[in-house]
Amino acid sequence: MAALLSDAEITAALADLDGWERDGDAIVRTAELPSFRAAIAVVDRVAEDAEDRDHHPDIDIRWRTLTFRLSTHSEGGLTGKDTALAKKIDSRLAEAR
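-> structure tokens emitted (97 positions)
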């Protein structure tokens, strides 16, 4: 079990994340990649990262635009699992640019 983050902890975590915003009990980031292939490559890498962590984001694919939504459903909100995966997604997006 992962502990839910407090509002202050979420605010602090978002300050260290690139482009992420809070949306209720989730954090969300939308990113545009240079091409559809680049976007799908990011999704593939994030899928591997998610499997390794047994923590899976919701991903919306719109041509070369990706939207990631993170929440720890089993805990009913945001945990350190979400912010850790968000940091990894940030690094995957940076690699793709």
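The CA atoms of residues 30 and 43 lie 13 Å apart.
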